[in-house]
Task: inverse folding
């Protein structure tokens, strides 16, 4: 597609067109230009704020789904908690969680599923602790978060039920935290909401739902996809095991080579505009393929090679522009610690024999393996 039809059009019966942009430079342009906006209510009328259901409002008020100035205000509120310096303080705790999981894996007999036993629980425990989600409730969050992500493909028929349960649970959690505030992010955001101006009630729900989903569905793919790429390239695996000073470039290469998020979330053309020879109409949907951009031969030398020593690696796995991933420093740190500790604990780690090869899940937006044994 990138070579033959890099700005790919899909026409719909209603006269609208959806565009998929696949070249590195074009992807960055879409993510950066203010003429591609997030607020679709400008084009699709009939859903005034009052009419919006609680479920819809959770998604419409996420910082990922709004434009400035609301986006700027919401992002500013949480940015300090996710800066690289703040995140660096979590290093000892992340290492401890990884050690605990590895210990359990060592005690297990038979093949280990790297996803279920390691790549999945690690980031969940970290984000839950950061937010202040009680550990006994983590399984519920897992289910709700999975449902929401699957909804993009209409796979989940329990969507309404699960999102309603999620909202009810958060209502209960917020009440509880109001009475007993802690040092966690949820307590701090509740305080911001109560003080008014910075955050309204709908935005509070949206913020927590977004952080929980982002913390559940992405870093697992970073850890597992990078390990899978290493298994597929034994020379690179050996190189890393011999010299862990490559761990940072290896994680960046994992992000580029098997990008955990395939596409950016939706953007809409605010007005009619020309885009490299194509005409986008007002209200057209534009999606940027991050994973394609990250394999663009015009940008990356030997783009199809997996090279853990790659130095010049300006991939767009975390997006670009104002919606650039808030959790990037956290995900990078988790990936680094998780992979290094895993390879030290299991120096002879390899794919299980006599099992079917790992398969990427058929989920739009995300690229992740179902099982990695
Ligand atoms: C945004 C990828 C981990 C929180 C994004 C975007 C991408 C992305 C591509 C931009 C989407 C767009 O522009 O449409 C990833 C990847 C991760 C990861 C590949 C792991 C390897 C995390 C984690 C958190 C997080 C751990 C939070 C704890 C967010 C938030 C946004 C975001 C809040 C919205 C930022 C905004 O709208 O300004 N992420 N993410 N992400 N991510 Fe991540």
Result:
């Amino acid at each position: 597609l990138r070579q033959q039809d890099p700005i790919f059009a899909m026409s719909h019966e209603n006269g609208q067109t959806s565009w998929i942009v696949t070249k590195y430079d074009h992807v960055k342009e879409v993510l950066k230009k203010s003429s591609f906006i997030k607020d679709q209510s400008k084009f699709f009328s009939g859903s005034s704020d009052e009419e919006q259901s609680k479920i819809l409002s959770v998604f419409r008020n996420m910082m990922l789904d709004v434009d400035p100035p609301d986006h700027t205000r919401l992002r500013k509120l949480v940015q300090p908690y996710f800066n690289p310096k703040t995140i660096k303080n979590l290093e000892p705790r992340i290492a401890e969680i990884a050690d605990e999981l590895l210990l359990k894996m060592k005690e297990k007999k038979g093949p280990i599923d790297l996803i279920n036993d390691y790549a999945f629980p690690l980031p969940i425990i970290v984000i839950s602790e950061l937010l202040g989600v009680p550990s006994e409730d983590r399984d519920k969050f897992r289910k709700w978060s999975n449902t929401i992500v699957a909804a993009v493909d209409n796979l989940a028929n329990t969507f309404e039920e699960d999102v309603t349960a999620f909202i009810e649970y958060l209502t209960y959690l917020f009440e509880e935290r109001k009475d007993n505030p802690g040092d966690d992010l949820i307590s701090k955001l509740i305080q911001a909401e109560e003080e008014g101006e910075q955050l309204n009630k709908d935005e509070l729900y949206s913020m927590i739902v977004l952080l929980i989903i982002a913390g559940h569905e992405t870093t697992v793919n970073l850890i597992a996809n990078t390990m899978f790429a290493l298994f597929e390239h034994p020379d690179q695996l050996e190189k890393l095991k011999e010299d862990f000073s490559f761990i940072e470039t290896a994680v960046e290469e994992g992000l580029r080579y098997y990008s955990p998020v395939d596409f950016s979330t939706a953007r809409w053309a605010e007005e009619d505009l020309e885009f490299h020879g194509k005409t986008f109409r007002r209200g057209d949907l534009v999606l940027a393929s991050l994973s394609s951009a990250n394999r663009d031969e015009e940008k990356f030398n030997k783009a199809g090679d997996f090279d853990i020593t790659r130095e010049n690696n300006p991939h767009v796995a975390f997006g670009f522009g104002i919606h650039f991933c808030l959790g990037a420093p956290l995900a990078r740190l988790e990936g680094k610690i998780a992979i290094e500790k895993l390879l030290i604990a299991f120096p002879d780690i390899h794919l299980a024999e006599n099992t079917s090869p790992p398969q990427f899940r058929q989920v739009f937006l995300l690229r992740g393996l179902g099982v990695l044994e």
Notes: The domain at 7-345 is CATH 1.10.630.10 (Cytochrome p450). Strands lie at 7-11, 17-21, 36-37, 267-269, 273-275, 278-280, 285-288. The pocket of protoporphyrin IX containing FE is lined by residues 31, 63-64, 75, 127, 210-211, 214-215, 218-219, 222, 260-261, 264-265, 290, 317-319, 323, 325-327, 330-331 (CB under 6 Å).
